[in-house]
Amino acid sequence: MVISLPGFQDAVHEAQTTFRTLLEALAHPGCSCTITTSITPPDGMSPACAAACLTLLDLETQVWLQPGLEIESWLRFHTGCRFTTDPQQADFAVIWDVARSPALQALHPGTAEYPEASTTLLIQVEGLVDGEAVVLQGPGILGERAIAPQLPAQFWQQWVSNHHAYPLGVDVFLFDQTYVIGLPRSTDIKHENMRKRNDDRHPESH
């Protein structure tokens, strides 16, 4: 049974370590940070995303699970979190197939008084490399940083609107099996090929 799968072997230490890693990922958008965990995750979850769930979810959080991800009993047993069928009501949303997930704008963007009340997305991807390249700019990035996670084009189109809503909007974590990349709503993006075209138009003088 899924519910019988263990959580952290050393709950306090692993949760603290994972939490620091997640904070590091948000503080330095686009950097791949390693999540080391003892968890044997349920089917459909990577160890990195499972560790993040056990770290971030608790009795006070409301979670939306993308249909097809059969982990509700495991999360309830290990975290005590509550679940909702309405993405707008979720503190956290766990996504396993971003191509078929709700648009970022379908989740809770926070309010003017409480922008931090927005939904945080935990998105699993096939890989954090070899996808469409985009260039990140914003707080926590010195100049710019290029990344290429395996995400559909519509995700980045939605991200532009998400960023323009700042300080409202959602924050995102991207997970493969071992690593996490943070994308806070303050991060702006442009496509790598667009940057190359601009560089061609405006070559640096030497």
Describe the model.
Helix 1 packs across helix 2. The strands form 2 sheets. A 7-stranded mixed beta sheet has the order 1-9-8-5-4-2-3. The chain has a 3-stranded antiparallel beta sheet with strand order 7-6-10. Helices cover 28% and strands 18% of the residues. Strand 8 and strand 9 form a beta hairpin. With 206 residues, it is α/β, with parallel strands linked by helices.
Report the radius of gyration as a whole number of Å.
Answer: 17 Å
**Please, how many domains?**
1
The count of β-strands is 10
> N- to C-terminal separation?
65 Å
Residue share in helices? 25-40%
- How many strands, what sense, and barrel or not for the largest sheet? 7 strands, mixed
- The CATH superfamily is identified as Bacterial phosphonate metabolism protein PhnH
Report the total helices: 5
Strand order of the largest sheet: 1-9-8-5-4-2-3
Low-confidence stretches: 196-206
How would you describe the shape?
globular
From the 3D coordinates, which CATH architecture would you assign? 3-Layer(aba) Sandwich
Oligomer: single chain
> What amount of the residues lies in strands?
15-25%
Q: Strand pairing plus helix content: what structural class?
A: alpha/beta
* H-E string: HEHEHEEEEEHEEEH
Class in CATH?
Alpha Beta
